[in-house]
Design a protein that fits this description.
By secondary structure, the protein is of the alpha/beta class. About 35% of the residues lie in helices and about 25% in strands. The strands form three sheets. It has a five-stranded mixed sheet with strand order 3-2-1-4-5, sandwiched between helices. Strands 8-7-6-9-10 form a five-stranded mixed sheet. Strands 11-12-13 form a three-stranded antiparallel sheet, sandwiched between helices.
Length: about 325
């Protein structure tokens, strides 16, 4: 007779400025469902779209989601909306996810659409890290803009770069300088293959000279994020660092996997809570208020569920939250 007891699973969300990702894993860290969609400036809307995708993938599986975690730039907001068991920063989530599949990893490179990070580990413990969220040079959006300038799909960059033997030197420390240098090199006759290989090199040099500056980079090195799918950049990292570069097929989901694993550990402590996909049909909105209750003048981000105050943050004391509760309780 077929076992009717559902398999216990865990939902991990990684909500970034460019993309929103989620996975459902089991106790053996098998990925049973996953979704990767663009955030499009609307983390709540993106979360609902991702939930719809996940629900479709698991509807015919005998599973029960008993733990939920969120990470990424919008982790607090989405954590409140999902009533997550755990909200954690992306450094921790990426480290945990990567260590699960690559227990000997010493360095994690991560380059996304608009930001990048480096994580240094020693014997499975994060000992150093850095993030870059200020400059687009050396990120996925930088590559995409150069692809448009060269009138070719960014997905083709890799194969063009691999066919180059003499990459063009591109000034990659600033997006503006790189673009003008690219145009100049094309005008004086550099081939498209060499220019693209040069762009891949410039991304690596920019990353190592900024995010990786002063870091003790040792192998094994795991490269993650959307840019890790570009084989030209992978080759450049290998040549410039002098070390093999590992690219995991699940690399773009490591933040989700890590936070799902951490959520699993959390529910062992605090107990299981069944997740319902009905949450995607609830109307959520955010609103900001200024407390003005003291010289701090805290700006508080409030999350409303069907118009009612759900939670808020940004306050340095309880006064701000109390004011927010009163403000939205008095509204019809």
């Amino acid at each position: 007779m077929e076992n009717q007891n559902p398999t216990k699973t865990y939902l991990g969300f990684d909500i970034g400025s460019i993309s929103t990702k989620a996975v459902v894993i089991d106790d053996a860290n098998n990925v049973l469902a996953s979704s990767y969609l663009w955030t499009e400036g609307d983390p709540i809307g993106a979360t609902k779209r991702v939930l719809l995708e996940i629900e479709k993938q698991v509807k015919d599986k005998n599973i029960s989601i008993v733990g939920t975690g969120t990470t990424g730039s919008a982790r607090e907001l989405i954590g409140v909306i999902l009533d997550a068991d755990l909200v954690k920063n992306e450094i921790t989530a990426h480290a945990v996810g990567t260590l699960t599949f690559h227990p000997d990893v010493r360095t994690i490179f991560e380059i996304g659409g608009q930001d990048s990070k480096i994580i240094i580990l020693n014997q499975g413990v994060v000992v150093d890290y850095a993030m870059n969220t200020l400059c687009a040079a050396g990120t996925g959006s930088f590559l995409a803009s150069q692809a448009r300038r060269l009138n070719m799909p960014v997905e083709d960059f890799g194969k063009y770069a691999l066919s180059s033997q003499t990459p063009t030197k591109i000034a990659g420390r600033c997006t503006v300088f790189a673009e003008s240098d690219l145009v100049h090199k094309a005008q004086i006759g550099h081939t498209k293959e060499n220019i693209i290989a040069g762009l891949c090199n410039s991304i690596v040099y920019n990353y190592l000279n900024n995010v990786g500056k002063g870091k003790n980079i040792e192998p094994p090195i795991v490269f993650q994020g959307g840019v890790s799918k570009n084989v030209g950049v992978v080759r450049s990292f290998g040549q410039i660092t002098g070390h093999p570069i590992i690219v995991d097929e699940l690399g773009h989901l490591m933040g989700c996997i890590g936070i799902a694993i951490l959520a699993r550990e959390k529910v062992k402590e605090k107990g299981e809570k069944i997740f319902s996909f009905d949450i995607k049909d609830i109307k959520f909105q955010t609103n900001g208020i200024e407390c003005n209750g003291c010289p701090n003048n805290c700006e508080i981000v409030c999350v409303l569920k069907d118009g009612k105050f759900l939670d808020g943050w940004g306050n340095r004391c309880q006064v701000g939250i109390d004011k927010a509760k009163q403000k939205f309780a008095s509204q019809p």
